[in-house]
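Table S2 (text version). Query chain:
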Amino acid sequence: MINLKTKKIVVPYDFSKTADNAVEHAAFIAAFTKGELFLAFVEKRNELLNMLLPSLNIKKPSAISNLLSEKLSSEAANISKKYGVKVTPIFSSGNITTEIINLCDEIDANLLVMGTQGSDSNNDLFMGSNTYRTLTKSELPILTVRSSADKKGYSHIVLPIDLSTHTRQKVNVAIQLAKLFTAHIYVIAMYNEDEQVDKFKLDVYIKQIEKECTKYKVSVTSSISKTDNKVKKTLTFAKKVNADIIISMTDQDTEFKSVLLGNYIHQLINNSKIPVLCLQPELSEMQAGGTAGVPF
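Corresponding structure-token output:
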């Protein structure tokens, strides 16, 4: 069963507005749950040297590293003071994805919060290659954030359900968040023309989810929709219910038998201005092809 923990939250940070947006969400969660924040800057040495050394008239690479490290420590102190949470700055160099994943392993992190420009970016992958690679390689839950928080907390949770293998594994996390923030869960079950014959399964899933929500005294509203564009349907629905967060599996709407980033979640992150919590399927379920971790 997938559980969401927030004791140690890592935020990749590069001093940009996008990273600041991620910090805003991560710091609030850390403060609300009495967690700790780790602000991680990974220096891409060659890129930084080419960009900064000529303009700053600095010859030694270590001077740049020292300046950035000091700036990171200053930012961490400001964030700690603003949100009342413990913030640990971590400065390293190398491959961003590799360094972030190694850091998460070293400190036994529970959650990654990453800023993304989404479809506003000029990057070919839109969400950014670093976010993409981290999503495909990290086993941690990852909250992708595109904009600053309009309000504190997550009171309206959208839970998209489809006929993919692991779709129900995120239910437990949705209930955990709902209890934590006294939120309402909005389930949107979706199927396309080719899945018409299996629509009855979604009816079963919804009844199971409603039963589980009732068990934990979480309010829930459910609906089923036929659509030829599940991403567009999810986002339209999320806007309609004034959602604060969308929860999805990284392989939702795909039957790949390995931890790959599904087309649905890729497009969802690219186009959603609402934070998206991305969950990796449990490996035991993937290997067995069953429903490991599903609480019903």
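Notes on Table S2: The chain has two domains: 8-145, 156-288. Residues 121-127, 255-259, 285-294 have pLDDT under 50 and may be disordered.
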